[in-house]
Write a structure and sequence with these properties.
This protein is α/β, with parallel strands linked by helices and about 210 residues long. The chain has a single domain (about 30-210), classed as Rossmann fold. It contains eight helices and eight strands; from the N terminus they run H-H-E-E-H-H-E-H-H-E-E-H-E-E-H-E. A six-stranded mixed sheet has the order 1-2-8-7-3-4, with helices on both faces. A two-stranded antiparallel ribbon has the order 5-6. Strand 7, helix 8 (about 185-195) and strand 8 (about 200-210) form a beta-alpha-beta unit. Helix 4 (about 75-90) packs across helix 6 (about 115-125). The longest helix is centred in the middle third of the chain and has 17 residues, at about 75-90. It is globular. Bound molecules: zinc ion. Zinc ion binds next to helix 2. Keywords: Glycosyltransferase, Transferase.
Length: about 210
């Protein structure tokens, strides 16, 4: 019935009639040796892991969720994030009690899009995970531009001194920074720096994709 009202297409490949097709579900699957350890240009000083390359259905799903309000894609992306998180626990990279801190989103952007997608994704991914809480502890200050199209130096300058603590309480234990995409590493590096200078024990970064 809904198809008659609203054309539905796969958020990964555009195939009509379904929101997330089996082919894209397979493409987003987190394999036994994933998440991958990646080396962004700006090293945040802790290991950075990504579920896969920012390409194909993964890229389409992230863009559709963030830019086109396809909230129905939060489910599949959260499953992938939860699997990645579980792996990091199994590998001993992180341990519980664990606090997941979403990387900061520009506030006006989050408002316009109906809530910060990374925070919502992290909450969905950890909803059933014992010993893991999500704390939206970081925000960006006014004056931060969208980083799309900026190079390494420009991204770093754009964020320098502009990542702030929200004052949201951190329950203690280790902290994992989570973001959608790691590109130059500027956001991760500045976020880790701010958390660490506040005495927060950040141990790793996990992202949905690397570019
Ligand atoms: Zn598809």
């Amino acid at each position: 019935m809904l198809d008659l009202v609203l054309p539905v297409e796969c958020g990964g490949c555009g195939t009509p009639g379904q929101r997330w097709c089996p082919v894209c579900a397979t493409a987003l699957r987190v394999h036994a040796d994933e998440p991958l350890l990646v080396s962004p240009r700006l090293d945040p000083g802790v290991p950075v892991f990504a579920l896969g390359r920012h390409a194909g259905p993964r890229r389409s799903a992230i863009v559709a969720l963030k830019e086109h309000g396809r909230r129905d894609l939060r489910g599949p992306l959260a499953v992938a994030l939860a699997t990645g998180l579980h792996r990091l626990l199994c590998w001993g990279i992180v341990e519980t009690p664990l606090t997941v801190v979403p990387a900061p989103t520009r506030r006006w952007a989050a408002r316009r899009r109906g809530g910060d997608p990374v925070t919502l994704l992290a909450r969905t991914a950890t909803a059933a995970a014992p010993g893991i809480t999500v704390a939206a502890a970081l925000r960006t200050a006014a004056g931060v531009r969208d980083s799309v199209g900026l190079g390494v130096d420009a991204r770093q300058r754009n964020l320098a001194g502009r990542v702030r603590l929200t004052g949201c309480p951190l329950p203690g234990g280790e902290v994992l920074l989570v973001d959608d995409i790691v590109t130059t590493g500027a956001t991760a590096a500045e976020s880790v720096r701010v958390l660490r200078s506040a005495g927060v024990p950040v141990v790793a970064v996990l992202t949905l994709a690397y570019a």
